[in-house]
Structures are given as C-alpha cells and as structure tokens.
Specification:
The termini are far apart. α7 packs across α8. It is built from ten helices and twelve strands. The chain is globular. It has one domain: Alpha-Beta Complex (Spore Coat Polysaccharide Biosynthesis Protein SpsA, Chain A). The protein is of the alpha/beta class. Strands 1, 4, 5, 6, 7, 8, 9, 10, 11 and 12 form a ten-stranded mixed sheet that branches. A two-stranded antiparallel sheet has the order 2-3.
Length: 271
Amino acid sequence: MVAKVSAIVLAGGEVGGSLATVTSERYEALIRIGSQPMVSYVISALRSTERVGRIIVVGPRELAGALSAEECEFVESSSSMVENLVRALSVLDTAEKVLVVTGDVPLVTGAVIERFLEQTESLEADIYYPIVTKESNEALFPSMRRTYVRLREGVFTGGNVVLLDPACVLKCRNTIEQAVAMRKNPWQLARLLGFRFIIKLLLNRLHLAEIEQRVELILGFKGKGIISTSPEIGIDVDKASDLQLVRSVLAGEYSALQNVKNENAPGTIDA
C-alpha cells in the first residue's frame, strides 16, 4: 500500500497587476477556467493520485461555496501565507510530512505530483522544493515569461509545490515569511543567504548543494532542491498572459509550435 500524504492548498491570493484587467474576481482561486474555478483543477489533480489523502483548502470565505465537502476540507484564510499554512497544519494536527500546493497552478496533474513525491522518497530532508529546468519549461511553454536562476547544475525556475515537516514552519516562521515575500526575486533570496552567495551567483559558481547547506545552517532544518522536468509544477497564474496560456492549454487549443518565444521579449531574467 502506498503511503499517503496530506495536502494543503493555499488559495487566498488576491488578483493584482495585469490579471486584474481580465477578470472581475477578487481572488485568483475563483477565476473561471472553462466551467470551473481555477483552484478546482489543483484539487482534482490531488484527488487523482492515490498518494494524497486529506486535502485542506485555505482560502477566502467566498471560496467555500465553490468547493465540495466530499473532496476537501475548508479553512478560512488570513492575509498572511504563512499564517494560512499554520492554520491548515493545526487542522491536520500531524507530525508527518505535508504536501503544500498553491491554488494558482491549474496545469498541475496527478502524475506530476506523483513524480515529485517519488523523487523525494530516497532523500532524507525536512523540506523538499522543486526547481524546474529552463530547457523543459521552454520546450513545452516557449512563450512563458519566467524568472530563472543560473546554478552550476543548470538554469532553473522555482516550483509551486513543497513537501515539508510541519515542525519547520513553527520553528522558522519569521524567516519563512521573508522567503515567501522574496520568492519572485532571486537576488533578495541570495541576500537572505549572505553576501558570499550573491558573489557566487553573479559568477555562475553557486552549487545547489551550497544553498542546501546554508539553509540548514541558518534555519536548522535540512532542505533538498528537487530538479524537475515537469514545467506544470511551476506555471502559476499571476499575469493576464498566464491566464490566457492556461485557458488555451486546458481547452486543448495550445500548441508549443505556435507559441515560440520572442527572444527579444522582456521578462525573463537569467541570474
């Protein structure tokens, strides 16, 4: 029998930026894609794999009516992502590792979730975070604008899934709040790790293992970066162009060949 993990879906993010010009919804999770709110695709992906047991969705009160009590449990969100995580963990009340997914990744599938969990099985750590290769991301979504970081192992963008020990959140809450706020800015994250890391990042000499070791030194728990070739795990909807893309994909109208990236387009950062 496959061991099941509980899952938390963080679905409290508010619509902002260019996304606000193409939807009247206040919350990202409620944006319609086809006939369903965006968060429903994430829940369906989790429900489709036997590796996931309980599902807790943390979101605004308005979201509760759009969810099925048979598929998930609902917890009302606050304005803090980390506080939302703490609220969900208190409901789960478990010492076992928990899968955390954001509610704005509608392209994620059960198979993608399973691959990520399988990659963590042989590794001892307290927290596992996927980093997606630039090659795999641009092979499937060449027009997608992403922020990339160049390490010695390759060029990567971050995922929107994490497997973690609940004790990590309670022990390092303030630092995690900082990291969450900086998650879209690799330079700020490097500053959190220290000046030496900024220099090595600039020189393209930073190894993934060095980041893992520094995180353990600062936070006191062991983290592992999981190199992923599943771009779906990193495609979050926070811009109008993102929404257009995922609607096209989920409607079966998307073709990578028709969406070849314009090499002169702004928005992709190689760090």
